[in-house]
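Input record (one chain):
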Amino acid sequence: MTRSSGHTGDYGFTMSMFKKLQSGRVKWSSSIREYIRDLEREKVCIYCTSSDDLSIDHLIPKSRGGPDIADNAILSCRTCNSSKGDKGVYEWYGLARRDEIPRIVEGKYLKLLYSLHEQRGTLNMGRVNLSELCKTCSQGRLCSESKLTVYCLESVLLKPQS
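The corresponding structure, as predicted from the sequence alone:
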């Protein structure tokens, strides 16, 4: 959200928008922005820009309950798609590369995660419940920040299906 608005690194803006989202004063825009940007792109892998052996990647893997809808699909090469496997976007990129996630991918992905949290009634879980979230986190090895991060949003929802 901050990157798309030109406020990268502006913690005040981020928290202000988060609180507005949480209170319902603002809503996520639809995924139409990402859809239009995706249509305008060359037909190349969103992750590495290869034009070879393209396939559809589910941002939230189907094996982890991801819906089979356009908002959960992105064009990627089979190499990147295989490398990502059944990982979530943030898990796959990791902490060191989290700022390299393509804007279209992150926009679609955060809206999907938000929608899933909204459906499950977990939007109000936050810092107060962080230790509770950490106990259920499937990605503890990634997050050494001990604060609420996008990894928290992803990991509590994207447990592998049994």
